[in-house]
Amino acid sequence: MKNINNIVDKEVNEIKLIHSFQDACSNKEFYEFIKALPIEEEILIKYTSLLEDSFIEYKNCKNCKGLNHCKNSVSGYCYTPKKENKIIKFSYVACKRKEKNLEENAYKENLELFDMPKEIKEATLKEVYTDDKSRVPIIRYFKEFMDQYNKKESPKGLYLTGSFGSGKTYLIASLLNEMAKKKVCCALVYYPEFLRSLKSSFQTDYNERFNFIKTSPILLLDDIGAENESNWSRDEVLGPILQYRMQNHLPTFFTSNLTLEELENSLSITSSGVDKVKARRIIERIKQLTIPMELIGKNRRN
Ligand code: ADP
Ligand code: MG
């Protein structure tokens, strides 16, 4: 008796499936959608409800107004059926626009930001203002840098000084973004905040953070000189980072509102007193690592 019941149940279910499939196919657009799939009807019949979900997304894609307007459940992806042996598997497949977008943004994976605004990853050399003559030697240097990188001994970075808002950070970031597009990993560090967070990570991931910065193939220490100096930050953080990078020829960039002379002065005075020798040693390392340049310009901040 049990067996007969099972057979009857199975048949009833099959009939239900066929009915709901036929119902769905009364929608001409849906019918055309499934007809175009390289899947036999006897298999399709079992997936009406999922095919309908997929159809909704397919229609959204047909009327696409751009990635930012995507109506699909996972933006940029379409819920797509694919036959595998005798079953259909559904998965979210990136659309052409999303694929292009993913490709164009892949370089961002090579950029590690520490307390920097994430928009900095969008900075591009193409957009660097050309109305300003003080940028010309810097851009020329960038071209040389890109040319030389990996060819012989790695080129030096820049110590870029200049007034607040003149575009120093943007400029260096635009070079590092280009390098990231060439698959070089770069770390961009807002130095004053990095020191604060490093200090509070003694119990946790201090070594990991410190070593990451120290060994990054290209490093930007942004706004150096704006931090509160202490013996610890000068002698235990900055000193060893610069020493390691010098020995390993790792390009290092700095931006600062201070000239090297002003930075030396600032580094010599800490809360524990005055130490001109230690400050001098740091400046010597920066000089070994970089070429000093100046960016003079109006404040671009609004
Ligand atoms: P600085 O580091 O010298 O203080 P920033 O690099 O932060 O200056 O630049 C100041 C502002 O101007 C920022 O908001 C930055 O995004 C913008 N900016 C600077 N240079 C450019 C550029 N070439 N194109 C677009 N925006 C820029
Ligand atoms: Mg800056």
Q: How would you briefly describe this protein structure?
A:
The protein is α/β, with parallel strands linked by helices and 302 residues long. The chain has helices spanning 2-25, 28-35, 41-44, 48-62, 96-105, 136-148, 168-181, 191-199, 206-215, 231-247, 260-268, 276-289; strands spanning 77-84, 87-94, 111-114, 157-162, 186-190, 218-222, 252-256, 269-270, 273-274, 290-295.
- Proportion of beta-strand residues: 15-25%
Question: What's the SSE pattern?
Answer: HHHHEEHEHEHEHHEHEHEEHE
Please give the count of helices: 12
Q: Which shape, going by the Cα principal axes? A: elongated
Q: What class, by secondary structure content?
A: alpha/beta
The poorly predicted ranges are none
Share of helical residues: 40-55%
